[in-house]
Specification:
five-stranded antiparallel sheet; alpha+beta; Immunoglobulin-like; 41% helix
């Protein structure tokens, strides 16, 4: 899908303000990234295909007669394959956020902005939109030439075709996104019958517009100015972090030369000053000026430089993944790997391991039953037959399993306390049932006042599904 880089000067088309116009920010220079091939480009496109296959395909997968992954906001349930999460399961959401945060910290401390360069949605969709642009308008040189031309029938046709494909992809992306919050098959029927609700319509258009604008037009501006990660990444780097580096000692002094020239005798370094590393950069930086916050770690410059080195019969790796200490002390791969495990990464790894272990333990020991006990506020306590005192409770029984179950209700905590109402409740799969429970106890079973009692709810034929909830019983 991309072509090997060749030695041409970097070219950008600036939008120049009027001479008397004061600007408070840097004027954007339109970037025309050059296509490049290589092992890192292959990795990047592999992740594009994998992430988008998951995103566009997972919402259509069925599981137990319903959508496999669905964050159903109307029902207030999250379905993730065999698990059903309720609002009361916010604990697991907290652990997922912690795992995501510490994973990002760890990856950044070890190898810089790997997420940005390979898996960030902004990077992924920018790659896709640029690939569409290249297929319709041509390679870098053709696109620059086309933009410089006045409007013509051919230019209008190419631009209109590109826009139509971009908009179609953006709307499909918005539709898919909403399909994770509203069952996607229902959503498809609503779209086909032009009966979409206002919120579904808004979010499809909003997410589609964001995809279209960010990936089609803003591109590197999102990474440079909108993404906060670019600003605070520096505090997570240290001299042993693997980042994309230019070997100044080996590359300088740079300069053009004939392949047969004894460049070392001429006082030149390995850099032939072709500028291809700048041309392939999606944010338009020159990595030879050192690591900059705009660098997203995509390694396109590494692939491009390696191709030039190969053509010149020079060793590859003039631009490579390395560390500050490795460049200064001329370390090899073994020394670099040995310094990856250091106090910072060990702390991140330990915390991440503990949180993941807690998350897995919580999932594996999670009981598919939840019960909320609510006292009837209308009648706190009343005297009934046989000198007994009655308290009324409302039990919200949540069956989180994907099968209907019958539950036996019991109560303990006071002498001769019992349930005077129905003791068996049947709850459909993945649903909630509210039950009014009348609890009675002898008037003299305890002193006056509030006394702790315990409701026991146990699934019939599933002895391990048992919940014990505390409540209070009032004796007047």
């Amino acid at each position: 899908m991309s072509q090997p880089a060749s030695a041409h000067e970097a070219r950008v088309i600036p939008v120049v303000p009027a001479p008397d116009e004061d600007t408070l920010y840097e004027v954007r220079k339109r970037i025309y990234p050059r296509a490049v091939t290589g092992r890192f480009a292959t990795w990047r496109w592999t992740l594009v295909w994998v992430t988008q296959a998951i995103f566009y395909g997972l919402c259509w997968l069925d599981w137990n007669g319903r959508q496999a992954v669905l964050f159903h906001l109307v029902e207030r349930k999250f379905y993730i394959f065999g698990w059903v999460f309720w609002p009361q399961d916010v604990f697991f959401l907290t652990l997922i956020l912690l795992i995501s945060a510490f994973s990002l910290f760890l990856f950044t401390a070890v190898a810089g902005r790997l997420f940005c360069g390979y898996a960030c949605p902004q990077t992924v969709y920018t790659e896709i939109f640029m690939w569409i642009e290249k297929k319709i308008e041509g390679d870098r040189a053709k696109r620059m030439k086309l933009d410089e031309q006045p409007m013509s029938a051919r230019k209008f046709r190419l631009k209109a075709t590109k826009q139509a494909v971009w908009i179609a992809l953006a709307l499909w992306t918005g539709f898919t996104f909403v399909g994770y919050f509203t069952p996607i098959k229902e959503l498809a029927r609503e779209v086909a019958s032009w009966s979409l609700g206002p919120w579904e319509t808004f979010w499809i258009l909003f997410y589609g517009f964001a995809t279209y604008g960010n990936a089609g037009y803003m591109r590197e501006q999102v990474c440079k100015y909108m993404c906060p990660y670019a600003r605070f990444q520096g505090v997570m780097f240290d001299p042993d972090t693997l980042v994309i580096t230019y070997d100044v000692e080996r590359g300088e002094s740079r300069g053009a030369r004939n392949k047969k020239l004894d460049y070392k005798a001429a006082g030149l370094g390995d850099c032939v000053d072709c500028g291809i590393c700048v041309q392939v950069c999606p944010t338009g930086i020159d990595i030879r000026n050192g690591l900059q916050y705009e660098c997203i770690g995509c390694a396109a410059c590494i692939d491009a430089c390696d191709q030039v080195m190969e053509k010149m019969d020079y060793p590859k790796g003039l631009i490579r993944y390395s560390t500050e200490n490795a460049l200064k002390q001329h370390w090899g791969r073994r020394e670099i790997v040995a310094h990856l495990m250091r106090p910072r990464t060990l702390v991140y790894t330990s915390i991440l391991g503990v949180v993941i272990a807690g998350f897995l333990y919580g999932l594996t020991t999670r009981i598919p039953l939840r019960v909320d006990v609510i006292r009837d506020r209308a009648t706190l306590a009343r005297e009934v037959d046989d000198d007994k005192i009655e308290n009324v409770f409302r039990l919200q029984v949540m069956n989180t399993a994907e099968e209907a179950r019958r539950f036996a209700l019991g109560v303990s905590g006071l002498e001769n306390i019992e349930i005077a109402s129905e003791r068996i409740v049947e709850v459909p799969a993945a649903s909630t049932k509210s039950v009014i429970v009348q609890v009675v106890a002898p008037e003299h079973s305890a002193g006056k006042g509030s006394h702790p009692i315990f409701f026991e709810i146990k699934a019939i034929n599933h002895e391990d599904v048992l919940v014990r909830e505390k409540a209070s019983f009032l004796l007047p």
